[in-house]
Amino acid sequence: MTSVVKRNIFLRRGNLSVYMNPANRGCGGGDGEDTSSKSSSASVKPLTIKPSANQDQPLSPESEIMKRAAAKKLIERYFYQVTDGCGDPECDNANCVSSGKLKHMKPNEAAAMAIQLFSQEARLCEPQRKIARTQDISAKTTPAIEVDINPSLNEEKLSEILESCKRENSYSKLIHTIGAVFSNMEILLISFVKKPNSPLEEILSKAPSNLQNLKKEDIRTMQGDLDKDEDSQEEAEKEGESSSQSQSTGPDEITLDLESLRRAYSALFAIDGKVFESALINALITLTGTVELDLKMFRNFKDEPNLVNIFLIMLELPCLSSYEYMERVLPGICRAASHLPLSVQAKLVRVLAKHCTQKLKSLLESLQQIITLKVITSPFSQEYTVYDEETVTAATRMVKIIFYASIIAGVLDSPELRTEEEKDPTEPEDDHFGEPVASSDTREPDVTPPDPMAEELQINFLDSRKPVIPFAEFYNEPLSDVIEMDKDYTHFKNRDSLNRFSFLSHPFILTPFTRSLGLYYDNRVRMYSERRVSILQSVVGNPTSPYLRLRVKRDRIIEDALVELEVVAMANPTYLKKQLVVEFEGEQGIDEGGVSKEFFQLVVEEIFNPDYGMFTHQKETETVWFNPTSFESDAQFTLIGIVLGLAIYNNVILDVHFPMVVYSKLMGKKGCFHDLKDWNPTLYAGLKELLEYEGDDMEDTFVQTFRICYQDIFGNTFNHDLKEDGDQILVNKNNRQVL
Description:
- The chain is mainly α.
- The protein contains 28 helices and eleven strands.
- It has helices spanning 37-40, 61-83, 107-120, 155-168, 172-181, 185-189, 199-205, 216-238, 258-268, 277-298, 307-315, 323-328, 330-338, 342-355, 360-377, 390-409, 452-457, 477-482, 485-493, 495-498, 512-539, 557-571, 594-607, 634-649, 660-666, 676-679, 681-692, 698-702; strands at residues 9-13, 16-20, 48-51, 411-412, 464-466, 547-552, 579-584, 615-618, 623-626, 707-711, 717-721.
- The model is unreliable at 1-56, 129-147, 236-248 and 421-440 (pLDDT under 50).
- Residues 572-739 form the HECT domain.
- Keywords: Transferase, Ubl conjugation pathway.
């Protein structure tokens, strides 16, 4: 029998003295000697926490945490003693399941009993050593060897390796572990995973801070609460409801313990990075190549539900923005991510939006640097274009994931604002011009299909009120400058047949000018198509003009233009898709673009003149809005819309400043209260203050009724009651939402 070690160890932590017997460390003998079956069941005095000599001072928060952690470790030993036992068949401890004197208990009951034994400082058995299977257990003199049968990595294991390396002043074990784990998909999939909440963890979460002075009534209460939680969960499962505890993982939930991973990275990179940097980089290069090859060729892991964990572990690396990792590792991550199934990419978007919001901006900056660096240093030519540079295209696809994550993590409008009834694009009807006219054009409309990622995420970029990263930060000017938009447009329109990458499918990375070139090519293709149709009609005996011709007088430019456009819109609206040619009456010249540009500038200058009375000007934001007291009919406003549409279609830039809600309306989205900020910030701030006011004197403070006042262009004041007798109803907390 091993001699009892009399030496006690006192660990000073703040104003605490932790009294520990060496046998409490979870090993056999404290001095390294072999133990017999009798000695393994010997009673061990449990760890007790004694106040130090300075008892009058309150415990610091760090001391409280350490005190509770030490108690938790001891309670865990009691828990495993009453559930698994010490492993000694001759154990005589009545509180150990190995003795046969303790009946089998439910996990909740075992957790409650463990806390009770701790509070009573009950007898604690020594656990048996783990012995390798190849070792003869009858050979008492052979030292026991612990075998690590779990190759995965977690925070605790990494901490142990770091401590061991520091003691030995050698980091070979760390380098070997990093190389083995970060280069292997199977191992990384099971690394840093969340530990399932045990009944002991659940009951400790409900326990007070002082675990030593617990009464039996307190323990029964905690156990009862835990039983109630389990009963309610079982009832929900029987009814077929999906509760958060019974559901494995939701669309934005993962099995990866991100907080533990971040703490592990902090501890790892606290040491000199040069020690393990080369091993980590080489391992990650191997890993990304393996993942890319598997997803591209073998597809063994394409249905793996936790595949997103591998990418999160790589993207969470704090050194990813450094040059060495950005140049050698990040491109491989992008190439591998580009081959992920759409559902996995969508899950990665949701997880980044929910758990990694603070990481999005740094990831975007690193990706932009990769793209810019490759664009500047690559010798692009006719044979080798930017579309052939896989690093650029893969990084752009990764930017798309960051783009949607930024939208989801930001402020979103309700999708109900997009519930306006969409008109059939093949039906050229306009209620302001009389009866609908059947179109002679039987061609199907060219409608751009929605983005598959947006459909998978069930979101629309129009819903984004305030993304985490402003849209302008996604623009990449060097990339936009080298894109050949004619080729890119061809790839975009024939993406299904050519299967080529197109930057127009990722418009968020292009500058507005480059995107306008894509719109220019699209409009030109439509014009040439209309011109071919006109030629074919001339061949069959029904000649039509290949252009949309407008003949106007300078002194009657608005009246003449609107009359001719009204005739065209009523006769055949498809003629509006033809190239515009303008002729000023009494002037000679051929319109090669300059005349049309002058025509639009003159029209806009007169239409938006305050004296014309169709629009009002907001001085604070320098924007224009529709005049509610205008004498013009709705048909006139419709024709003005046609004029502005023709200008865009014919690639003419106009100096028109509408608030953003107008463009949202054109995209089929309704306006909301927050849109008021773009047009009238003062009015928006006042109404917002009214909505957020919490005082009880709201009526006396604001003196606001349900009557509003406004002025026409001549300065006349008009009143409008939002409710019957609105001037008699004061706005208060109960009715301010109605206002």
